Amino acid sequence: MAQTYQLDKSPSLPSTPGRGQDDMLVVRNLKKYFPVKGGILRRTIAEVKAVDDVSFTIKRGETLGLVGESGCGKSTTGRTILRLLPATDGMVHFEGRDVLNASNREMKALRRDMQIVFQDPYASLDPRIPVGESIAEGLKIHGIGDRRERVERVRNVLLKVGLRPELARRFPHEFSGGQRQRIGIARALVMEPKLIVCDEPVSALDVSVQSQVLNLLNQLQSDLGLTYLFIAHNLSVVEHISDRVGVMYLGQMAELASREELFRNPLHPYTKSLISAIPMPDPTLRRQRIILRGDVPSPLNPPSGCRFHTRCFRAEDVCKEVVPAFEEKEPGHWAACHFAGEFER
Amino acid sequence: MAVTTQQFEGTDILEQKIESPFVAVLRRFARHRLAVASTVVLGIIVLMAVAAPLITAYDPNYNVPRDKNLPPSWEHIMGTDYVGRDVFARLLYAGRISLGIAFITVFFSDALGVVIGVISGYFGGWLDALIMRTVDFMLTLPLLPILLVLITIFSPSIKLLVIVLVLTGWVSSARLIRGQILSVREREYVEASRALAASDPRIMFRHLLPNTIAPIIVNVTLGLSGIIITEAALSYLGFGVQPPDASWGNMLQAVDQTVLNRYAWQAFFPGFAIFLTSLCFNFIGDGLRDALDPRMKL
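^ inputs. structure came back:
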């Protein structure tokens, strides 16, 4: 088990990344810095380190949940993996294929296998194009099937996501948010991808609709053997859908473990405080809430040492100076904290 | 997955009529009364200009010196001008030229502006900077004196007039389109297309352009009104359409104090044609702007 999750922190990367056959996506030391330009010469005066040295592996058929506050870099991570944003540094391998250095042709092939579902179901469909055509766009780009076959595939995929196929000729504005999200899923699904990056696919939906879409995603996963990178800021959602969960803070991975392990035995103080904030539908339950003070510091100028030390209830002097390594504290359970698991002082 | 027992969503939508965005725009435009009236009036003006030989028997360039400066009558419903030509006939044929210049100019200048604007906004970087500084530079030039100089260097003709108007006209639409592209290209559906490996031209012309069409259409209508006036001004000054060809602008050329006092119809009718046409284009532009804006619930 431990070997499958082996994370290589050394700068020299192995030529064949990931040790298990089942490692579908291997991300190593991924960095995405956004330059901040200023002055008349538009020179780079600073950098926002949106993703700073993130490593993880997703196994075939599993769901890796990625959680964190707004602006912690989880969406940027997802987009950089798909090369919708150029990475600053690092390595992404999909089934052994180098994503970040792929040629245009290789990238086109990779895009069939790696798809994305977006957060905002209102912004992610072109309002001027009937939804059937939006779904068929990928087929057209990749030259899959003739016109009739594409229509048939769109029909089938609409059925799969629980929409009536006759709706293909309708325009996005006629659909509700949840229905549009199903269309967004259909657009990804029609390519028959292996990996889908779900970028907060339910956070813009009503709670009742959220569960429908989550169940649909679950159903599709078991039917089609999909692998998900599921990005969310809602811990209950992530707990519902993930096999393993990664917690991000200010562009870095704070903790990564299997779902049961992470929720039962959080090692990082940040994770612990997040879990203590999950609302419980039981008014008699009394728990100790850990309230984080202050706001997330600016990623323009992140705190020295451990990035979380400014808000950590467990912080000591060493945290201000020494960056904690992201280490396997227990088998399959990774955390970046000097005092991982030691919550009593 | 048990398809037979599964609930499929969207039965409620099926009961609605399919309304494409285009039909929705037409429906909303139809509620804008002034714009609809303007469309009708403009349609009549265009029709009359096109069908000029069927409407009047007079040759617009045939002068009868004996009949000069006649007031409106049954024979000459808009009177005659200072050399004895029928004003109504001239007005109709002038409409062909004035409207023709306007449509051709706006078509080419907006087409040029759209292509340059889309490229500038989509690719960004140094290309965008270069194009936009060029646009800034051209917008600082005082248009009329430049046109006068250019037209003086070459001999004035309709062709030259159109070329000059196109070369100066694309800048404002390029800037407008670029701004629109900048906002639309950040939408998630563009990213979705990119995730499907869509090519740059596909993204630009399949997704970006159709979603900036509203301001383009409004710009075109307002541009038509602007060109009508610019052409009239240039022709009035003698740098545009050259006599004996008639345009609404050069029909005003001979107008001076005496004419205004004694033969006012010679100034009134072409002036009114310019005013009415330009007004119609403006109202249509307003109506389209409202109809094309999805936030306006009409």
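The CA atoms of residues 218 and 285 of chain B lie 5 Å apart. Chain B touches chain A through 33 residues (CB under 8 Å).
thumbs up if we can close this ticket
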